[in-house]
Amino acid sequence: SMPSEVLLKIISYLDAASLLAVGCVNKRFYELANDNGIWLKLYSSSLHPKWTIWKMKSKQTETVSLGCPAVHDKKPGYWKKEYIFKQTSAFKARVMRLVKFLDPYTGLPCKNKEAMKVSGLCWIIVLKDKNGKEHVVEKPNLSFKDTSVTILWYGTDWPCLDTLSTLKLFGVTPLLPGQSRPPNKNGPRRFSLIAEYHLANLTESSVAVGADELVQLFSLSPGLLVGIWKEKNEIAFVMANLHYNQLLERSILGSATVQYVPPPNKPLLDDIDSEYGLHDYTLHLDLHGRNCMYLCGSFKYLFCRKRDIENGYLRLRVVNLQDNRKHLPVIGTLGICWETDVFKGNVKDCFVMDLTLLDETGKPFWCFSAAVRMELSTKSSGLYDYMGHIYTAGYSDAEGTVCLEFVWLEETKEYIIVSLVLYVSTKKVNSWYGTNY
Questions:
Q1: Angle at 32 between CA 28 and CA 33, to 5 degrees
Q2: Residue 183: pLDDT above 60?
Q3: What would the mean pLDDT of 87-95 be, rounded to a whole number?
Q4: Structure confidence at residue 419 as a pLDDT band (50, 70, 90)
Q5: Do residues 311 and 380 share a domain?
Q6: Is residue 53 in a domain?
Q7: What sequence ranges are listed for the domain F-box (predicted)?
Q8: How is residue 341 annotated by DSSP?
Q9: Based on the domain organization, do 38 and 159 belong to the same domain?
Q10: What integer is the mean pLDDT of 94-108?
Q11: Which single residue of 1, 148, 209, 377 could bond 217 by disulfide (Cβ 3.0 to 4.6 Å)?
């Protein structure tokens, strides 16, 4: 029963976050909270004095905003949108400045954690069933590595697997960052779609990574691992592996419905003869099991001759089977650790591979973080230095393929990497360099 003029006067004392909350009460409050005069005052007060076009003191702001053309000539909510756009643009610029500092070792942003803290970034998954109902899962556990972050969600109230249709992974940030109070879970937030996965026939359509006594692991590209209870055939946990390359951009710069698409690479002119092929690549390879690191290696001066290009792929040989000086020992027993509220486990004979391939200028050329399974090969080791079973592991996507060979040494209880070869798609190379290999 209170007159709108009185309500409008009361609402005018609220800050931006409270205005957005009030607008969710009902239709009348939404219209009042969209008032251009209130939002123009907030917008002008947020401007630096030398940039404001009104050039007025704070006491004059309210008087002018109620009668100036900037209020009456605009549709309701115009200045609210302008204020939010200005705040989010300044926030994104601030975060992107942090990730410009690159680690000379990996070629990736070295201040990812600081940028995530400044942005208030978190990640959630949204499970959608076949009837359109959505189930939001928050509060993940984070595990940071040199080139990736592993995000683990678990709970006791997962929807029935048979009823689910899709899973969406979002980066979530406060809609109005930089406010004096910490971000509120129930406050206004901005969603950036990172990836969408189809869960229909999950166990048949996805790659089985491994299993232990309690769960089975299934991998969905890119970088998602779903743990299924063996007894109930229900979701136990979801694990996402996100590579630092474009991590913040994908988590912040996308929208709730459209994924962020990075700009195309601007190739540098190369004065090397084309017959020389590709050269001076650098590879960083991490193998881990979420909580433990098995291998962290760096390989420089990788190259590919013209004769190494066939069937639409360029071959980069990193570790040669015949050159035992470059063979790599793997620390520990390979496996992926998982946990829930009650149970913990370790699925053996699989691991998470973080690959970062840098071009000759040090820019990330091909990057991923994904779960990989190991398989026992039918052939036995023909090497005099190592006598034992051979295991193979591999990863493949639209940009390339990775092939690994391990030898298991029973005497020392360790794996040795005796072969590592990368096959990079010529389509990827041509689009990156603007050439035609």
A1: 115
A2: no
A3: 83
A4: very high
A5: yes
A6: no
A7: 1-42
A8: S
A9: no
A10: 84
A11: 209
Tell me the C-alpha to C-alpha distance, in Å, between residue 49 and each of 2, 15, 55, 81, 201: 37, 20, 7, 21, 59
Instruction: Write out the two tokens for 351.
Output: 């691991």
Tokens 């055939």 sit on residue: 233
Contact 366, 387 (CB under 8 A): no
Among 269, 278, 271, 272, which Cα is nearest to 305's? 278
Q: By the 8 A CB rule, do 63 and 56 touch?
A: no
**Among 105, 123, 148, residue at a domain's last position:** 105
Q: Tens digit of pLDDT for each residue in 255-284?
A: 999 999 988 888 766 544 555 557 889 999
In a domain, residue 267? The reply is: no
SS3 category, 403: strand
pLDDT at 330: 94
Helix (H, G, I), strand (E, B) or coil at 180: coil
Please give the Cα distance from 83 to 96 (Å, whole number): 20
Closest residue by Cα to residue 373 from 390, 389, 394, 357 = 394
Is 412 found in the same domain as 304?
yes
- So what's the pLDDT on residue 185? 61
DSSP-assigned states of every residue in 95-158:
HHHHTTSB-TTTSSBS-HHHHHHHHT-EEEEEEEETTS-EEEE---EEEE-SSEEEEEEE-S-P
Domain boundary among 198, 230, 251: 251
- Say which CATH number the domain at 14 has: 1.20.1280.50
Closest to 357 measured CA to CA, from 415, 406, 397:
397
Asked if residue 199 is part of any domain, the answer here is yes
Give ∠ CA 413-416-422 in degrees, rounded to 5: 150
Are 310 and 429 part of one and the same domain?
yes
Nearest to 267 by CA among 163, 391, 359, 172: 359
Domain range for 399 is 281-433
Return d(Cα 167, Cα 218) in angstroms, integer. 14
pLDDT above 50 (res 52): no
- Domain identity same for 219 and 169: yes
Shared domain check, 291 and 161: no
In a domain, 64, yes or no: no
- Residue of 27 and 378 predicted with greater confidence: 27
Q: Are residues 348 and 316 in the same domain?
A: yes
